[in-house]
Amino acid sequence: MNILIKGLVKEYEKVALSIDELFIEGGKIVALLGLNGSGKTTLLECIANFKGYDKGIIYYDGEEDFERVRNKISIMQQRPYIFNMPVKENIILGLRYQRLDTKIIEERLKKYNSYYNLNFLDKNAKKLSGGEAAKVALLRAVILERPLLLLDEPTANMDIEGTLMTEKLLKDINKEFGTTILIVTHDIFQAERIADIVIFMDKGKIIEMNTNEEFFNNPKNPLVKKILKRGEVND
Amino acid sequence: MEILEIILTSLYVSLTSTAIASIIAILLAVPFSIKDFKLKRAIYRIADSLMAMPPVVMGLIVFIILSKRGPLGELNLLFTPTAMIIAQMLLILPIIFVLTVRQIEKIAPTIQKNCYMLGGDYGDFLFLIINECKGEIFTSVTSGFSRAISEVGAVMMVGGNIKGYTRVMTTFIALETSKGNFKDALIIGLILLAISFLINIILHSLKGRETNEYIN
Q1: What is the ipTM of this complex?
Q2: Does A82 touch chain B (CB under 8 A)?
Q3: Do A97 and B119 touch (CB under 8 A)?
Q4: CA distance A41 to A48
Q5: Mean of the pLDDT values across residues A219-227?
Q6: Per-residue pLDDT tens for A149-193?
């Protein structure tokens, strides 16, 4: 799914996000980097229509009306809301809403759970650790196989194995379905490992956007240069 | 035998009024919690104020509505258990509504957005919010029931305290006390207290221990 953003402004007490124009080509994995408060999450939530915005337009494959594309977008938030029900029901909830056949639901669950091998599918999801909850929330978003996947720091609470399996999962669905993936991360190396396009944000604006190779080998912006030299995106 | 009848009438009236008020209050509280509209604060404040409405005032209002010359006089509901249910239901409706709104308004928009993003509709959202907040909702319902079973003014006025028909525990206590029969009044008072405790324990055990929280 192509995303075209024009004149997007989101204000809280001050301007949190201000993007003149941004085009994200369908089928790409795009990493959003930036310091805390740079507007990454706000951008993701504006695209997912989780929060209204003050000005601007977002086109989804040329479609302006979000309601027409709602069922083509999945999101995993930074602090995912986990429902008070078993892990399995949390993961397949969206499939149940589609009234899919039980056999198809079970097949999808098996397919995507093979990445993490979660063996606590019957456990109440409210009792999970942060890393486990992140995996459940990610599977809940991925299992829908929608054309646009928005992920806000999906691996922040995961261990190395979980992180690497997540990256493999994202690459696999991107390859299989051509899923457009926007992933917010503080891990520069993760961005380098999986992204086709890297965007760097600062103070609500995009200060650098380039292909993976160009971004990491030939950064233009002084702040990006400094951060790449330091090796981590943290304050 | 009379005592058993009084207890059963009390339970029938209070449980029915609580059930009806709960359904209406929850169905109103959910959209109220997720939508912003012009008179929202005013409606909330009015409902909040109505929580403290004296039962006799509610009894008077329902009495006027159901009396022969009232708008619903033709239904002949005055001095029946149905009239008592109506009065109690109207009395506790604001209590359950306001307490439910207080409990769910912070979490409802998050659940709604997550539900809709997963492809759910309003019915799915309603199921999810009740499932997610059942503990909090039970607390509201318990508060409403406690108020219903313990009030005397409204049921006395619209029920008439008719022996074997509309006499409930609270009106029996009031009557026997006025006659100086403290022994019977005290026995029923203790039964009323025990039933209140029992119903509260049952509702709280249904509530469960899960709480809503974001997982980091």
Answers
A1: 0.86
A2: yes
A3: yes
A4: 10
A5: 90
A6: 999 999 998 999 999 999 999 999 999 999 999 999 999 999 999
Take residue A48 and report the two structure tokens written for it: 């997912």
Cβ within 8 Å, pair A140-B119? no
CATH number at residue A168: 3.40.50.300
* CB neighbourhood size of B181 (10 A): 13
Burial class (CB in 10 A: 0-12, 13-18, 19+), A43: buried
Tell me what the mean pLDDT of segment B122-148 comes to.
92
Q: Which CATH number fits domain B2-215: 1.10.238.10, 3.30.1660.10, 1.10.3720.10, 1.10.10.10?
A: 1.10.3720.10
Q: Which domain holds residue A161?
A: 3-79+146-230
Q: How far away is chain A from the Cα of B215, in angstroms, using its nearest Cα?
A: 6
> In this structure, are residues B96 and B136 in contact, taking their beta carbons and an 8 Å threshold?
no
Q: Is residue A33 part of a domain?
A: yes
Q: Which residues contact A9 (CB under 8 A, 6 or more apart)?
A: A15, A17, A18, A19, A53, A54, A55, A56
Which amino acid is present at A65? Answer: D
What residues of chain A, 95 to 134, have a C-beta less than 8 Å from chain B? 97-98, 124, 126, 128, 130, 133
A15-24 β-sheet, strand order: A15-24, A3-11, A55-60
Number of domains present in the structure of chain A? 1
pTM of the full structure: 0.82
Burial classification of residue A33, based on how many CB atoms lie within 10 Å of its CB (0-12 exposed, 13-18 middle, 19 or more buried): buried
**A114, part of any domain:** no
CB within 8 Å: B118 and A84:
no
**Main-chain dihedrals φ then ψ at residue B184, nearest 5 degrees:** -65, -40
Q: Look at residues A77, A130, A123, A126 and name the one whose alpha carbon lies nearest to residue B211.
A: A126
- Domain range summary for chain B, segments of one domain joined by +: 2-215
In a domain, A107, yes or no: no
Spatial separation of the C-alpha atoms in residues A190 and A72, rounded to whole Å: 25
Q: How far apart are CA A97 and CA A74, in angstroms?
A: 14
The helices-and-strands tally (H runs, E runs) of chain A is 9, 9
Asked whether residue A134 is domain-assigned, the answer is no
Residue of A75, A76, A84 to mutate, testing the B interface (most B Cβ within 10 Å of its Cβ): A84
